[in-house]
Amino acid sequence: MSEVHKIPIPIVNYLHLIERKESPYYDLILYLLSDMERSLKKSNLNQGIIYSINPRQLKNEIDEKISSSKLTPINISRTILALLYGSKLKKDEDYYVTTSSGGRRNYHIKVNNANLSMLQMRLRI
Questions:
Q1: Angle between helices 73-87 and 25-43 (to 10 degrees)
Q2: Does pTM top 0.85 for this prediction?
Q3: Which of 38, 61, 111, 118 is most open to solvent, judged by the fewest CB atoms within 10 Å of its CB?
């Protein structure tokens, strides 16, 4: 894991939590990947789709499915970043980050079969 030193320390910690399949972080990743896969299948587009994630909305959406006081919008953002860094998706090519008027980040991932398998394989999901 020589590439770990390039990833910010807080994100490395989340990456390790995901790799060790710690709840609720691993559960969140499973939820996101299954939703990405479902969205890709619904679209019937060969070139893929852009999957957008707003951590605050995601928290509200998954509160009933994954109930944990550890899942805050900040922890959700860090978990998403760990997924992106861990899978070696390329920034601006495979994903990009936007900022809302309130300063909150939104994540946009280009989901196609290749990127989806990279996300799943890299993190051993």
A1: 70
A2: yes
A3: 38
